[in-house]
Design brief:
By secondary structure, this protein is mainly α. Helices cover 36% and strands 0% of the residues. It has a domain of 76 residues. Helix 1 packs antiparallel against helix 2 and helix 1 packs parallel to helix 3.
């Protein structure tokens, strides 16, 4: 591996992540066991970071100023997630939370029901009657 100019802060940050993941895996606080491959992977990352300041040489796999390639960083996140302690109890809240406004109280649900007869005209109660009006006609002279 050719040495690249990787900022020392990024190398230290990557080393800290690697060491933290290994410490949590070795502490045995959680039930997650790392596979042999994962242990070798993390050990290899640590060794290359200490020796070269970067864990990859092919610039097509990551940024020139990064200490870990994109895939290495992704796999390290997966290993770190595996070593985390599970939550004490599962959360009861799932899904989206309904946004509440100011002073909104939990009102009982009332469905919006449209009355189809609401738009209908009122029924005619009387039948129309034909009335003949006298006067004003032609031919009455």
């Amino acid at each position: 591996m050719a040495k690249r100019e990787v900022p020392p802060a990024k190398t230290r940050r990557a080393l800290a992540k690697v060491r933290r993941a290994m410490e949590k895996a070795k502490s045995g606080d959680n039930d997650a066991e790392l596979t042999r491959w994962e242990r070798e992977f993390v050990d290899g990352l640590e060794e290359r970071l200490e020796k070269y300041g970067s864990a990859f040489a092919d610039l097509s796999k990551g940024g020139a100023d990064e200490a870990l390639s994109l895939r290495q960083a992704q796999k390290l996140r997966e290993v770190a997630k595996k070593t985390r302690k599970p939550p004490a109890r599962p959360s009861k809240r799932k899904g989206l939370k309904r946004a509440g406004g100011f002073g909104r109280k939990n009102k009982p649900y009332t469905p919006r029901i449209r009355d189809v007869d609401e738009d209908a005209p009122e029924p005619v109660s009387k039948r129309p009657q034909l009335r003949v009006i006298d006067g004003g006609g032609e031919g009455e002279d």
